[in-house]
Amino acid sequence: MKETFKKSKEARIKFGLHVKNNFRTSQRDVPVCSAHHYNNINPDKIRDVIGPGGKMINKIIAETGVSIDIEDDGKVLVTSTDAVGMQKAVKWIEELTHEVTAGEVYEGTVVRIEDFGAFVQILPGKMDSCTSVKSAG
After folding, report:
1. What pTM did the predictor assign?
2. Domain ranges in the chain?
């Protein structure tokens, strides 16, 4: 009986090592899964994401490594194997399509100062906002 337990233990160890070694090997060969993000944008803003001659969408794809599909009704699908790149692309698209709303608080960069106020860029690619120097706090 001791011999049976000894052989059983040796077989379990050998099997465990076999599974461990093969699992590591097969993991290297498995392709990375892609992640995807759906978003809906105003169909009038599609041209902002695509840009003249496709320059903007091609820039987003080149800098983030994502794939972007936009439908005529404003559905946007962003896919990537890199989560960081996908998040960057989604944020970029959201900034391009965001509509400025009165009462919202924005952080921006002062791009020009005049006697009557300062021009502040609050979203990339958007027209600068004129802010009264008195109201800047």
Report:
1. 0.61
2. 1-30, 35-97, 105-137
